[in-house]
From TrEMBL:
Gene3D superfamilies: Histidine kinase-like ATPase, C-terminal domain (3.30.565.10). Residues 29-123 form the Histidine kinase/HSP90-like ATPase domain. Keywords: Kinase, Serine/threonine-protein kinase, Transferase. It comes from the Bacteria. This is Histidine kinase/HSP90-like ATPase domain-containing protein. One of its GO terms (molecular function) is protein serine/threonine kinase activity. The keyword Transmembrane does not apply.
Amino acid sequence: MATALQLPAPPEPPPVSNYRLSAENSETAAAVLRDLIGALLRTTGHEALVDDARLCTSELVTNVHRHTATRVIHVDVEVHERHVTVWVHDDRPSPLPIPQGFAGTAGGLGLFIVDRIADAWGTSRAGGLTPRAKAVWFRLVEDPLQPAGGRQLTPVQLDP
């Protein structure tokens, strides 16, 4: 008679929560969506990421408002135990320019700011061979050794 081995159950995957936030593409969209991101992260225990997430969200939503005809801006948020990933969707599938740094002009720093603050960022396009939309995403990772209240920022020297 064969005896079955009793193996322990596999470990549970870390919990992931997904949220979708939306706002009409208007002058107030960036403010509304960055405030919602802040409230969401505070509520889910990611206080240390709030300021960076609000800034990155604001920059990306502002880009959608200024450069696309998207009627409703959707922001998807994936909340993990130690990090969050945020996607900002628009209806313009063209690739983004690579941030080159401070150009000395007003505006145009959104992707540069996201590049400096986020632990990772990128784009994805939807629609197969004929893309019809894109999302710009960023990830922020909590530093378990960092005290509450956010990460230390390293000053960036901007050439005049």
